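hey so i finally got around to running the thing on that chain from the lab meeting. sorry it took forever, my laptop kept dying and i had to restart like 3 times. anyway pasting the input first so we r on the same page abt which one it is
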Amino acid sequence: MTNGFVYLAFGSKYVNEAKISARSLKEIHPDANITIYSDIEINNNIFDKTVKINSTYSSYGTSIINPNQIPYDKNIFIDTDTYVCSSLERIFDMLDEYDLVVTQSPGRTEVPDIPITEYNTGVIGFVNNDDVREFFTNWGSQYEKIKEESGHSRNQRSFTKELYYSNIDHLTLSREYNVRVPRCGYVNGEVKIVHGSHNKSLKEIGKALNKSNKARVYYIPPKISSESMHTIVFPPFYVRYKNLISLGVNSIKKDGIVKTAKKIYDIYCPKLKGNQ
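ok and heres what got predicted. didnt touch it at all, straight out
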């Protein structure tokens, strides 16, 4: 059983992005197998295998995976404009149970004719089997159909529509596996991958996001000055305390101080004893 990572990079700009992303990946997974498919020659030892190909599609279609680009039994495709911040090993574990895993797009863009919003195609885990190969073939066909009918050239709509109608056993990953920038959102635990373009390096943004691994919300504006980097992450403690105070006041009004104090004791004292 082989595990590995896959990049698609067409043009020198995207190859250079892929090199930066792959270096960050190797820092976390030094023994990782990495294959890159590209239309130019790549002389770089960061990739274990380079395959020169011509792009089948144009524009956003260049990141559509085809059945000939599944080099391992378990694969994690990563967009070139990414930075890997922490371990992705759990994705490989998930692929023991699922054919494909992917994150929802933070924009929550609706897809015509189906009752779900778009998935983001920047991070996709998938196995190598007949259903998955058929899915990738149909994704490409669906992309061309939508582009011809509506002029819509982003590949997420076609991916989502094809996945919805497929037999693929799939799982939606949590936001930590694909934090898009610039965006706002909520994470809990370590951020795994930062994904997007920004005036600050994705490495800096990843470090700021991972200063805490507790539940937190974040806002990453389109441009950040050095002085405002620390304002990226906002742990929502104030919300928590505000809610607790409100619950306490309402309980006192309803049940009185004694009963409220007993409730607090019953809830929190066992937790405190357990932490000793």
